[in-house]
Amino acid sequence: MIVTILIFLLIFFVIVIGHEFGHFLLAKANGIRVNEFSIGMGPKLAGFSRGGTEYALRLLPIGGACVFDGEDGRESVNSDGKGKNFQSAPVWARISTVAAGPVFNFLLAFLFSIIVAGYAGADIPVLGGVLEGSAAQAAGMQAGDRIIGFDGRIYLAREVQLVMALNKDGAPVKVEYEREGKRYTTTLTPRYDEAEGRYLVGFSNYSQYQEAKGLKLFSFGWYQLRFSVRNTLMSLSALLRGKLGADDVAGPVGMAQIVDEVVEETAPGGPLLVFMNMVNLAMLLSVSLGVMNLLPLPALDGGRLIFLLLEVIRGKPIPPEKEGLIHMAGFIALMILMVFVMFNDIQRILR
Q1: Residue 75 annotated to the active site
Q2: Sign (positive/negative) of CA torsion 250, 255, 256, 258?
Q3: Final residue of a domain: which of 210, 242, 260?
Q4: Catalytic residue among 20, 71, 159, 323
Q5: Is residue 255 in a domain?
Q6: Could you tell me the pTM of the whole model?
Q7: What is the Cα–Cα distance from 18 to 107, expressed in whole angstroms?
């Protein structure tokens, strides 16, 4: 369990540092003073000051912060000339600074995805066969068909699995595939399989392994990143539409449990397999952090970007004190949600 906690903390530090470093780097490039760069929240465990910025490690591994001078309408607390107030910076400088956090999460995730692709290659969606009496057989699909569309363009076999995992009501699926250089389009209506307990279209062995060589390393890495973004967006949409429940959401405790399960399952394969699975998990979490932070909600980067874009449209900013109150309310709501998710994680573990 100690190993699991250390691995989880390492992953957490990497993705949060990546996010906050994006903010930090663009703030410095735009001449905006950073008062604090912290990892974690709550009471400070350790820290130091350098160049007008306090660097801190805090107790709770549930986020981080890059606090700009004068942010959210607060008065400047420093006047030593080492950077300017956030509110006094040009609007596009502030937009780039706020957007940099999620962007760096995606860049970090792309780096991880290239590493994973170099090790594991890619699962190309090519049919090995179709099941007897299935929708795929009725539509005339057969072994060797390469699937290029499954409710949207796809590149990896796991995207078929993702779409079907979230297809809880047997909704028809538009499929595009290639056979001997020609493209075909059909619509498959999934059939409920009692043994599997879910809807299936009838694909059998639809994953064909390809090794990542040369430039394919980057294209396969991009496919992995694209899948992770799509996975996050589709899961979020399913959650909002009630197709996923509270047990499908994980906070820090739940993520630590996932790390523990992955370590336990992959340990027999050796340290390299464990390491690559941790890199893959870090890639998924970095994408999730990037996507979630771009949601247009108060206190998140997406919410801050909405206010800045409104400033561009209006030609003048929303009063900083009013914006600060809205973000504070959003932050309190997020903390309440975090407590609920953590409580649910603990209950799930104890069941």
Answers
A1: no
A2: positive
A3: 210
A4: 20
A5: no
A6: 0.88
A7: 9
